[in-house]
Amino acid sequence: MKAVDARGFFSSANALEFEDYLLLDYVFECQGDPELAAAHLCSEQSTAQWKRVNVSEDYRPRFAAKVLSLDTQACPSGFSSPVVELGDGEVYRCKVRIAHPHANFGPRLPNLLSAVLGEGAFFAPGIPLIKLLDIQFPDSFLSAFQGPRFGIQGLRERLQVENRPIFFGVIKPNIGLPPEPFAELGYQAWTGGLDIAKDDEMLADVQWSPLAERARLLGAARMRAEQETGVPKIYLANITDELDRLIDLHDTAVAAGAGAVMLNAWPMGLSAARMLSAYTKVPMVAHFPVIAGMSRLPFFGVHTRVMTKLQRLAGFDVIIMPGFGARMMTPAAEVQACIDACLDPTFGNIKPSLPVPGGSDSAATLEAVYNLVGSADFGFVPGRGVFSHPQGPAAGARSLHQAWAAISAGVPMAEAAKDRPELKAALETFG
Amino acid sequence: MKAVDARGFFSSANALEFEDYLLLDYVFECQGDPELAAAHLCSEQSTAQWKRVNVSEDYRPRFAAKVLSLDTQACPSGFSSPVVELGDGEVYRCKVRIAHPHANFGPRLPNLLSAVLGEGAFFAPGIPLIKLLDIQFPDSFLSAFQGPRFGIQGLRERLQVENRPIFFGVIKPNIGLPPEPFAELGYQAWTGGLDIAKDDEMLADVQWSPLAERARLLGAARMRAEQETGVPKIYLANITDELDRLIDLHDTAVAAGAGAVMLNAWPMGLSAARMLSAYTKVPMVAHFPVIAGMSRLPFFGVHTRVMTKLQRLAGFDVIIMPGFGARMMTPAAEVQACIDACLDPTFGNIKPSLPVPGGSDSAATLEAVYNLVGSADFGFVPGRGVFSHPQGPAAGARSLHQAWAAISAGVPMAEAAKDRPELKAALETFG
């Protein structure tokens, strides 16, 4: 691209009508002129050819993505990850803000992904490494999305749980365990105070645990637990499967007593979630497989904040995400950014999604997670912390309530554990 | 995990019935004991808990993923990409082959992805960097998939094209260009000899170019071109959109005269493709946005070979992929591996997909691509090389045939160009 042509991909912010644009923040590492690289980045994601041969026209004013700002920093030690040889030239790391006209593709998630994470982003000349850090959506774009049907408040009403985190538990073991003992574990955890007993995200509709049978047994166990405890419970069924079975599986699970359904968001596709959200009458929960494969590195891929916003747009009432602590290899600031993306009140008229930062949790980690989240509006999702509790799943669930009571009363956890054997055992086993 | 428990995630190859397992090849970088890391990798992707508390049972023999081989190499200079601090300890780069029991989830693409690229891969303790390099599928798994309906031979029959590459062209400009001039460009290219005129992968069903109108005009232009040239032509419509519109858009486009449909495979989800493949009566083409965001780095994410195999499994008759040359920042060996994955005759009963390695192609690059592919069984997909040809799109298409005639006759390209003005101009403009 000639320098004179590159200028067509730059704009001052006040020359634009912001309702017509998505604001995209990328960090990229380039070799050669950063301004030219940024122009390529805009060109490739919008009007790579902006005119016909021998025709006097220019589609850039209306259709081009445009650089609004560009911060450049030299990287004398080269690229942050190994990349193919591009030739000689200085390496720079740049932060760029781009205004992308959303009428180029409209309020459609697959087309949005194709524009902002497609050939434009990953094959812009001179830019082997790039990460999409954030998208800001104008109301004109957001208003086309329904978002979560229930949101946090809707889920709280279904569970009659206010002013505390919602206690999920991943029934374990799961791969290999037949439906009957699986349901028995769920039952025990519910009687101990668990709100939502859930399938693992790898548990499918398989021969050794058909979803119809699993849901029937879990549905019955749930009703028993509700009758005994007097409070509503939810069985969260993983209905991740081939798309042509999705509605059938959903109907089967819900009819049998699943009070919520889980989709592995990225393997199913965000559009499958958006479709199901318009159909289902129960809360919809996202799990996170595959996403880390394009979000972990600081200077390549896509930030989980973006993925969280897209999952909220797609209609997930609950978003399970890699949580705090070394186990999940995710910086605390990144987890916080995803929680914020779930809760942000300035996201059009779209309800908040319940954030569920997860990973090796138990009564021993509840206080730290609560302090990091900064409110009780989150889900807490132990697996072993409930189901490998040495006194059994009911005791595991009870230990969560005991930990929360201690937090609420301002009593040190070790102090509270003294006369609460379930909490004591949880701290000893998992602490 | 204790060392004694880790042994349950290792096996010798001859102890296994291979029809029951997928073979997964990963490369990972770990800190600390590589054997323990490999055991975690297996455990986390299968039976993380293999028994209930206080129950004597072990789900590992049947359900555990198992290490078959592990090659370890010290990395004294540390990790190849920046990762979160894991602590002290030697860094190793390891190649591991894992046997994963596919009955854990069954022949379902979203569940397969969740198992092999999920929490198991990206959150195994001690392994911040990992890349899935390959999957080998036994016939017992492949037999559940239909694969491409048409495959290469079916597409050749529709086009009546044998013994040469199939000539695609991306109509340009596209973002911003209204349907009428867009169809006129397609018409011109067809009359010059293009086989398939296609929508750009970013071109959606938008207000300034509604797919119904675009397909109607392209369908009419195609018929005109077929009548004039006497050979079949295809308009390839991009029907990437929200899932709940997919079938309607497909039907609209095909009824209006689209002879093939394109999906952006990863943004739509592979399962959407598998569903559409069972429904459509026209060839289905995959485009590659987003994939590079998890495949570019040598030691993180997933190899495009895997993505190509999955797209073939999902039923794509044609797979457009980043091609040869510096422009696409993809090593030639990787492109070759993807082409091989399309053509591999030992892939159950699944038909081959036509590989289309693309990126800044023209008559000037045809010979090099042909030599690298090693056969004529590929698609060639210029954009500018046809539609920015200085003598117009018909001349651009003609230049491809002239280049192919020269290759077939063993005439040097520069020689052939002497009395072929379209080829001459293509070499001068794009060479």
Automatic annotation (TrEMBL), chains A, B:
Q: Pfam families of this UniProt entry?
A: RuBisCO_large, RuBisCO_large_N
What SUPFAM superfamilies would the database entry show?
A: RuBisCo, C-terminal domain (SSF51649), RuBisCO, large subunit, small (N-terminal) domain (SSF54966)
Q: What is this protein called?
A: Ribulose bisphosphate carboxylase-like protein 2
Organism field: Thiorhodovibrio winogradskyi
Please give the family membership noted in the entry.
Answer: Belongs to the RuBisCO large chain family.
| Entries under InterPro entries matching the protein | RuBisCO, RuBisCO_lsu_C, RuBisCO_lsu_C_sf, RuBisCO_lsu_fd_N, RuBisCO_lsu_N_sf
Domain named Ribulose bisphosphate carboxylase large subunit C-terminal: residues: 151-430
Q: Which gene encodes it?
A: rlp2
Residues covered by the Ribulose bisphosphate carboxylase large subunit ferrodoxin-like N-terminal domain: 33-140
